Amino acid sequence: xxxxxxxxxxxxxxxxxxxxxxxxxxxxxxxxxxxxxxxxxxxxxxxxxxxxxxxxxxxxxxxxxxxxxxxxxxxxxxxxxxxxxxxxxxxxxxxxxxxxxxxxxxxxxxxxxxxxxxxxxxxxxxxxxxxxxxxxxxxxxxxxxxxxxxxxxxxxxxxxxxxxxxxxxxxxxxxxxxxxxxxxxxxxxxxxxxxxxxxxxxxxxxxxxxxxxxxxxxxxxxxxxxxxxxxxxxxxxxxxxxxxxxxxxxxxxxxxxxxxxxxxxxxxxxxxxxxxxxxxxxxxxxxxxxxxxxxxxxxxxxxxxxxxxxxxxxxxxxxxxxxxxx
Length: 326
What we know:
The N and C termini lie far apart (39 Å). This protein has helices at residues 20-33, 51-62, 81-87, 100-103, 116-122, 166-174, 187-197, 216-225, 227-233, 246-256, 281-291, 308-322, and strands at residues 8-13, 68-73, 94-99, 132-137, 140-142, 152-153, 156-165, 203-207, 212-215, 260-263, 269-272, 297-300. The chain has a single domain (3-322), classed as Spore Coat Polysaccharide Biosynthesis Protein SpsA, Chain A (Alpha-Beta Complex). It has a five-stranded mixed sheet. Strands 6, 7, 8 and 10 form a four-stranded mixed sheet that branches. A three-stranded mixed sheet has the order 5-12-11. By secondary structure, the chain is α/β, with parallel strands linked by helices. The chain is globular, with a radius of gyration of 19 Å. The chain has twelve helices and twelve strands.
């Protein structure tokens, strides 16, 4: 089958941390943890302000070639059906909810899980998932049209990111100051660990907060041959400094096989984290988008912590460019 005819699915991890039943389920495990910190188990890792509606709408609007969207949940449902029918009545994209009980079939004793890195390690296990699939967090958005070639070309995957020096970043981690009694678990730390798990000595691949195109068979084959790594990475209820980033590991495997196309995110990716910023921060970001027609990927991090005015402005901006109504 030619690349242009192969199905492409999207996988989104989602949780409604405002749900009282979810809070109740999590509470005993938080109590055992003994401490709560934003980098590991803070509320901002679970709270939702409706980003899933905009994330899904952005795929319908700007990636109409997608076959199916799988949304991974823990006994929850974002209830998107009416919203999608109102805004995209002609679309053929299907949506399927994948419960944790399905994703972790055969590994039920580890449940419940409150850890996105565990989920990311298991995305390839979704029943019926296409060989080529793109992983989103629910705060990832497409903001202009994308093509299949933005994610896959022939038998290769587009790898958005850049190389970083292992030794320099290991040194930076060593001198990192403690916070709340431990060293904060940073985004790049899990990517660095991915390289170390593969015995890399000099450089590792650094991702951005951007949709990650993956191939199911590559992860399936690797974890079948490295079961101990798989079991280790899915063994933590909450995020841990001992976990590697599955997407970063995947791209290293693809580079080894000469099947990854290194691509810079400069000028095509807009990252917005409207937390503890100046009064003009959001406006400047939106001006950057308006002035650069190449930007097609966006992440809005920690929107739940933003000031009400910034939250309203950003959601209104997304609503306008996606041409959606509620």
